Amino acid sequence: MSVQGGPTPPSGGQSTPPQTWAIIVWALYLGSAVTGISGIAGLIIAYLKRDELANTPYGSHMTYAIRTFWIGLVGFLIGFVLVFVLIGILVLIAVSIWVLYRSVRGLVCALDGRPITDPLTYL
Fold first, then answer.
1. How many of the other CB atoms lie within 10 Å of CB of 121?
2. Which residue among 13, 33, 57, 90 has the highest number of C-beta atoms inside a 10 angstrom radius?
3. Among 73, 53, 75, 68, which Cα is nearest to 107's?
4. End-to-end CA distance of the chain
5. For 93-113, b where at least 16 C-beta lie within 10 A, e where not — what string?
């Protein structure tokens, strides 16, 4: 009698719950305030999970997270360029507050099990 090798699947065959993915994305975004780079991991997860979570309350979180990243990046680039004319510091502070607000809002909604009501909004 031969024994087949390989990993055994987890009991119950359950995958990671959609809520967990939303929480991970928002935690990575908030972590980027410290690391400066974990937001990229959050962006990658959001892109990878967007279609899978589309028919759940957490699909809106992925769209909101993706928009938060790209709009925030553009804002930071504009702020960086404007640093040379001394208004950039204010732009960088404003964009940082905006990204922090959206990340906290997303995390609170994810923890409450609620979708983002309008993921295409700027606020």
1. 10
2. 57
3. 68
4. 63
5. eebeebbeebbeebbebbeee
d(CA 5, CA 106): 42
- Locate 22 and state its tokens: 């939303």
Retrieve residue 54's tokens: 């589309």
pTM of this prediction?
0.85
What is the rounded distance in angstroms from the CA atom of residue 41 to the CA atom of residue 25? 8
Interval 55-83: pLDDT, tens: 999 999 999 999 999 999 999 999 999 99
Sign of CA dihedral 90, 37, 112, 121: positive
Q: Are 64 and 80 in contact (CB under 8 A)?
A: no
> Do 46 and 65 meet the contact criterion of CB atoms below 8 Å apart?
yes
CB 79 within 8 A of CB 88: yes
Domain ranges of the chain: 17-111
Would you call 58 helix, strand, or coil by DSSP? Answer: coil
- Distance CA(27)–CA(14), nearest Å, equals 23
